Amino acid sequence: MTDTELRVSKIEDGTVIDHIAGGQALNVLAILGIDGGSGEEVSVGMNVPSDRLGRKDIVKVEGRELSQNEVDVLSLIAPAATINIVRGFDVVEKHRVTRPQTVGGVLSCPNANCISTGDEPIESRFDVLEEGVRCTYCGTIIRDSIAAHISVE
Amino acid sequence: MRHDHLISAKQLSRGDIDAVLDRAAEIAADPGAVTGAHADTLLGLLFFEPSTRTKMSFDAAMKRLGGDTVDMGSVDSSSVKKGESLADTVRVIEGYADALVLRHPSEGSAKLASEFVDIPVVNAGDGAGQHPSQTLLDMYTIRENAGLDDLTIGIMGDLKYGRTVHSLAHALTNFDVSQHFISPESLRLPRGVRYDLHEAGAQVREHTGIEDVIETLDVLYVTRIQRERFPDENEYRQVAGEYRIDAGLLEAANDELTVMHPLPRVDEIAPGVDETRYATYFEQAHNGIPVRMALLDEML
User: Fold this and answer.
1) Interface predicted TM-score (ipTM) over 0.90
2) Exposed / middle / buried, residue B63 (Cβ in 10 Å: 0-12, 13-18, 19+)
3) Between chains, do B108 and A138 touch, taking CB under 8 Å as contact?
4) Residue range B15-74, pLDDT digits in tens
5) Mean pLDDT, 10 residues at a time, chain B of 300 residues
6) Which B residues 182-221 touch A at CB under 8 Å?
7) Residues with Cβ < 8 Å from B244, sequence gap 6 or more?
8) pLDDT at A4 over 80
9) Percentage of residues of chain A with pLDDT beyond 90
10) What whole-number distance in Å separates Cα of residue B73 and Cα of residue B47?
11) Under a CB-based contact definition with an 8 Å cutoff, are residues A95 and B87 in contact?
12) In chain B, what are the domains?
């Protein structure tokens, strides 16, 4: 994408999450727990043209470098995403998301009878399967619409 | 058995199962040999749901090994009533007992308990999840009556919510067993269980009628279809009536058929079956003692 096509400005220091499937940007922010409440500057582009994806979303978070663990959970809803760490307007690191073995505290179990949905001092935990995720506690499998089960505090 | 806890039948290898069943056979043959084997051991019984067989047989098994039990009592008389979390309850009881037997209405409760204590936890039923100690006594009964290899079994009734079914089906994947699952469409095996069976290399053969397979079975494992799973009484009666075993149906069965049921039954096995050579469910319930003695002996 050239500068003339940019719909959101470059950031000086922070993280750019690129190549998110069109329409998933807000779910990406939810999965990362970014709601603007802690003052980060966040820019979101949705359904912008992309050679690779046709249409893509892009998220820029100023002043915060996301760790590999944080972004790995994105693979559940944005498997093609690329992560660019920016310092002084330059991309200093660029990597793809990789699928983690488990994700904790990000999703809530859809089984209302699962102990993880009760008032216990634990966070939800899911094993990542080839297709979908599985609750470590009750074994419920989520295959479709994983984003619908994102746990937003 | 090398496990610290018994949470799910999925953790049991063929070697684990054989070890408990062999030990149970030794104990059944000579119960006096283990009297006093676990003197001074206290087993904590935490039953958040009603139980007769499981609770009493763990209680009896521990006492027959020379130990004793401490019982949380009913939920109504415990601090759970005051809103205490399960995590807190088990951490408190950990200080009173050497091992815990837990039954709880939520799936995953035994796993949670095992994460908060350092003493062995035995899952005695977690909601519609697992009931692995029942599975061990079921496997013992099957082995005693029909053998555990080159076996064809039909598992019938509430396969969706039946925790004994979920545990048994998985444990059987360790053996050369052909499994048939017979249920109404609405009570089929849940996706997670079918996934596990597939991963274990088992073929899931599902049927809506027992008539399709009755003559091929060596073992028929019947479970109760629970009234509360249906929106109205009429629908329940219609479905339950179609999954009822009686002497007429058994005329088509193999002469050596073993009919099992984890009990309690309501009317899914007609009383007339009790007097036939097929009925094995009371023997099955009695096997809870040597098998749970063997399990505790292996774990403690």
Assistant:
1) yes
2) middle
3) yes
4) 999 999 999 999 999 999 999 999 999 999 999 998 999 999 999 999 999 999 999 988
5) 86 97 97 92 95 95 97 79 89 97 97 97 97 98 96 96 97 97 94 95 93 96 86 82 91 96 93 95 97 96
6) 191-193, 195-196
7) B267, B268, B269, B270
8) no
9) 52
10) 7
11) no
12) 9-130+288-299 (3.40.50.1370), 132-285 (3.40.50.1370)
Three-class DSSP labels, A2-64: CHHHCCCCCCCCEEEEEEEECCCHHHHHHHCCCCCCCCCEEEEEEEEEECCCEEEEEEEEECC
Q: How many residue pairs bridge chain A and chain B with CB atoms within 8 Å of each other? A: 60
The class (CATH top level) of A6-96 is alpha beta
> Would you state the structure tokens that stand for residue B295, as one six-digit string?
């399990």
Q: Two tokens at B62?
A: 């521990």
Per the listing, tokens 């009695």 go with B286
CATH architecture for residues A102-149: Roll (2.30)
What is the pTM (predicted TM-score) of this model? 0.90
Q: Residues B64, B103, B160, B180: which is the catalytic one?
A: B103
Contact call for B109 and A115, based on CB within 8 A: yes
